[in-house]
Amino acid sequence: MAAGFKTAEPLEYHRSFLAKNCRPDGRELGDFRTTTLNIGSISTADGSALVKVGNTTVICGIKAEFAYPAVESPGKGYIVPNVDLPPLCSSRFRPGPPGEQAQAASQFIADIIESSDVMQTEELCIVKGKLCWVLYCDIMCLDYDGNLLDACLIALLAALKNARLPKVTFSKDSEVPEVNLENRTGLNIHKHPVAASFAVFDDSITIVDPTAEEESLSTATITVVLDEEERLCALHKPGGTSLSGQKLQDCISRATTRHREIHKLIDKVIQSTKTPE
Amino acid sequence: MEVCGSSSPTLREFGCEQNLLSRPDGSSSFIQGDTSVLAAVYGPAEVKVSKEIYDRATMEVVIQPKVGVPSVRERAREQCVRETCEAALLSKLHPRSSFTLVLQVVHDDGSLLSCFLNAACMALMDGGLPMGCLFAGVTCAINGEGQIITDPTAVQEKGSRALMTFAIDSTERRVMMSSTKGSFTVHELQKCIAISQKASEKIFQFYRDSVRRRYSKTL
């Protein structure tokens, strides 16, 4: 009976739960799904992380390559994020060139890297004007069940913290870089931006960490990104029904507690991988 | 051409021309200082079967840059404009049909996203599409000294440490869309929202005046 009701009237089905301050998967309105993190999952990448937020699974691999610095910024390297939503992760994505959602997510991640100062691109410079690192951060969704942006940002941050770049010596005469793959050093991560996403139901009820189904039924979604100093790096609301300043404030407060949880999780996982060495 | 001289220095001079293209169902050109955008809307029209939605209209937004082909940045902006229009339009009145909005950048001198939104709203109005509310785009920049500049130019945008664009709705003056760059405190955010809400009053007044002027001739 319940299954039939869910298929025929999905919105009414969700409303009947929301009226009792809970959700079909048993969570309360302000609860996130269980978040699990695994770092160093891809041994061939320079840094990697696998994140699961409920069923949503995202993997991030970082590949470092040499590049020529841009002429206008000779002392800087590059960080190039790319979010891929293959048809593997959900039936809503088609094969072929990246769709609007994948492109918007890539742009969002690129904006966060720039706004939050997660790391200084000056530190990716090897020889000023001659050689620098470019970090390709490929983020791939393996299972799409809503709240993509939160998962992507956790994966990116954990992978950057996991990344270790080989030492490079640059001889001035021959201008050939020599790479010492044995001697690797970690990156200097300055800020830890963490995202928290919300969905708005019926113009008034805000729920935290929406699933794919909740996302498609909701009238608006909001993503708040905070760093550890409680500064906002992004307040991304790509449209949908309008919200008052007070409601936005509530979302920001919830995002603050979420930041603490995720920061603790990343630290814990990194600590646990360090011990066996 | 109608030009509204802003009485306070917060917004650059802005103006709009509606119904300037003959083929689209609605068109407008919106100018904020030196930033200028041309918008055209088609609809309700037939929709591709793959994009058909059974209980409402499909909205499509295309942003054309001045030079070159649309890139990832344009796609992200398209998403912002599209979802704002979707929320404002009463798309349930036209199920299984499509609305297409084309935004052509004529000149970019800062606050481009807010100019897109304003041009889009004027074009939708000109097309006579059913809307639940109007919307206005306002861009705020916070400069190095912590001052808030509304409707910044490209130079002011470059020198700013944070940049926020909001779409404000006309019924309750609440935030429909928000897109930010750079980092800022919660207090600064609330201040920028309050300023944008105030600035949106001017734009809504301009919408009202320009529509009144236009229809006073025909009636």
Automatic annotation (TrEMBL), chain A:
GO MF: RNA binding
One Pfam family, short name: RNase_PH
Record carries keyword Cell cycle: no
Subcellular localization: Cytoplasm; Nucleus, Nucleolus
The protein, known as: Exosome complex component RRP43
Domain Exoribonuclease phosphorolytic residue range list: 31-166, 193-256
Similarity section: Belongs to the RNase PH family.
UniProt main location, coarse: cytoplasm
UniProt entry keywords in alphabetical sequence: Acetylation, Cytoplasm, Exosome, Nucleus, RNA-binding, rRNA processing
A Gene Ontology term for the protein's cellular component: cytoplasm
Coiled coil: none
GO BP: any one term: rRNA processing
Domain of life: Eukaryota
TrEMBL record, chain B:
Keywords of the record: Cytoplasm, DNA-binding, Exosome, Nucleus, Phosphoprotein, rRNA processing
Gene3D superfamilies in alphabetical order: GHMP Kinase, N-terminal domain (3.30.230.70)
Keyword Phosphoprotein: yes
Main subcellular localisation: cytoplasm
GO molecular function: DNA binding
InterPro entries: ExoRNase_PH_dom1 (IPR001247), ExoRNase_PH_dom2 (IPR015847), ExoRNase_PH_dom2_sf (IPR036345), PNPase/RNase_PH_dom_sf (IPR027408), Ribosomal_Su5_D2-typ_SF (IPR020568), RNase_PH (IPR050080)
Compartments reported by the entry: Cytoplasm; Nucleus, Nucleolus
Residue ranges annotated for the Exoribonuclease phosphorolytic domain, each copy included: 11-130, 134-198
Domain of life, source organism: Eukaryota
Transmembrane portions of the chain: none
GO-annotated biological processes: RNA catabolic process; rRNA processing
This protein's record includes keyword Cell membrane: no
GO CC, any one term: nucleolus
Quaternary state and interactors: Homodimer. Component of the RNA exosome core complex (Exo-9), composed of EXOSC1, EXOSC2, EXOSC3, EXOSC4, EXOSC5, EXOSC6, EXOSC7, EXOSC8 and EXOSC9; within the complex interacts with EXOSC3, EXOSC8, and EXOSC9. The catalytically inactive RNA exosome core complex (Exo-9) associates with the catalytic subunit EXOSC10/RRP6. Exo-9 may associate with DIS3 to form the nucleolar exosome complex, or DIS3L to form the cytoplasmic exosome complex.
Protein name: Exosome complex component RRP46
Species in which this protein is naturally found: Umbra pygmaea
Lineage: Eukaryota, Metazoa, Chordata, Craniata, Vertebrata
